[in-house]
Design a protein that fits this description.
The protein is mainly beta. Helix content is 0%, strand content 49%. A 4-stranded antiparallel sheet has the order 2-1-3-4, with no helix packed on it. A hairpin with a 2-residue loop joins strand 3 and strand 4. It is globular and about 35 Å long. The termini are far apart.
Length: 65
């Protein structure tokens, strides 16, 4: 199982890009800077959280106006 989500500065999940199984190998996902309801998110700092059973990574992401 793989989870990839975008969070705001308060830790609230803004969007979920993937939740579930993925085959082995390289994958690519795009985020259109919209929240789960399809609204554009404001410019600012966000966090991308990637997790699998053996690994969790968090990276910063800046959305520019």
């Amino acid at each position: 199982p793989v989870s990839l989500a975008i969070h705001d500065l308060t830790g609230r999940r803004v969007a979920r890009l993937h939740e579930g199984e993925m085959g082995a190998g390289a994958h690519s996902l795009r985020w259109n800077a919209q929240d789960a309801a399809g609204r554009a998110v404001p410019a600012g700092l966000y966090f991308v959280r990637f997790s699998t059973p053996g690994l969790t990574r968090v990276e910063r992401l800046v959305v520019l106006p």
